[in-house]
Specification:
Radius of gyration of chain B: 19 Å
Shape of chain A: elongated
Shape of chain B: elongated
Distance between the termini of chain B: 48 Å
Helix content of chain A: over 70%
Order of helices and strands of chain B: HHHHHHHHH
Largest interface: A-B, 38 and 59 residues
Number of helices of chain A: 7
Distance between the termini of chain A: 125 Å
CATH architecture of the largest domain in chain B: Orthogonal Bundle
Structural class of chain A: mainly alpha
Number of strands of chain A: 0
CATH superfamily of the largest domain in chain B: Winged helix-like DNA-binding domain superfamily/Winged helix DNA-binding domain
Oligomer: heterodimer
CATH class of the largest domain in chain B: Mainly Alpha
Largest sheet of chain B: none
Strand content of chain B: under 5%
Structural class of chain B: mainly alpha
Largest sheet of chain A: none
Number of strands of chain B: 0
Chain lengths: 156, 199
Amino acid sequence: MRDEHIIGLLDNTPLGNLSAAQLEVVRTHSQNCLSCERAYQASQLSSALIKERVQTVIEPTPFFQTRVMAALREQQAVESVPAWLRLWRSAGALVSSMAVATVALAALSFVVPSATNEQAATAYSAESVIFDQGNDEQLSYEQVLSTIYAEEDEAK
Amino acid sequence: MASLAQNGDESAFAEIVRRYSPRVFSVASRFFRQRSSVEEAAQEVFLKAFTQLKSFEGRGSMEGWLTRIATNTCLNMLRSAKRRPELTVSDLTEDENKWLDQHVSEVAGVRHSNVEETLIAADLADRVLDVLPPEDQLALLMIDGEDASVKEVAEATGWSESKVKVRAFRARKKLREAMEKLLSHKKHPQIGGAIGNER
């Protein structure tokens, strides 16, 4: 039966706090029960490890007091500055750069496109196409015909 | 001294830091083993104490009040740190394996005269304890390690005594099971040696 085992006792009480009578029960039972023997062995090791762990205590250095007082003054200096100013100091650069970016975007959206449209209208208006016809470097119909017939004559 | 510090007397607070820093370091050492972590925690404790000085009414001792602040501060710091979900035999160093082998058949409570062995054991203890929640670690270290009473743990943490008992029982059980698993894997490597993952 599980109730007869000593595992519950091991989990309930620190090993060091078991009475002599309880320890005797644990030892006697462990000799005849493999699972309880394992549990007892594991408890002994756990207890030993915990005892070793608490032996390590770090002592403060002589400079610790100075360090704390310096940190305290720093904290007080930060707290003496108004909250809005602290916020501005931490987020001011970000807010400024966002404002500059917004202005730049607005300029690009409203000023630059209208100028481009005017240029485009000028360059491709019907009048300019008609009046510029005389200036282009395309060959006239007569020039094309004379070139073709001249080549045929030479071939003959 | 406390009332002087409450009125903003810096030298009085400096005296509090000087007088109680060994106690605060001792509490922080339960949670951390690196000096830098212990110092960081202790500094945080005194900064908190300074801002909360007004709430110290002088009913209990200054040491008790600082102990509670230190315990809660360290618990919070440990909670934010990532816990190791499990520990396997392969995670152990050669020295830790050797320590386990040497002490498997020894009686619990043995003290090592060898400083190196003590450090190896403390490292191994840290690794094994790391599978437990910080609150359970604290209950176990105080009761089983420092022989503190349930009442003392309750005062240091602000928990009820029944909560302390439950945490200590649960931690002890979990640690025993973890250790059993580790030992069985050392004897029979083919079974599998992960501990702490059956939560």
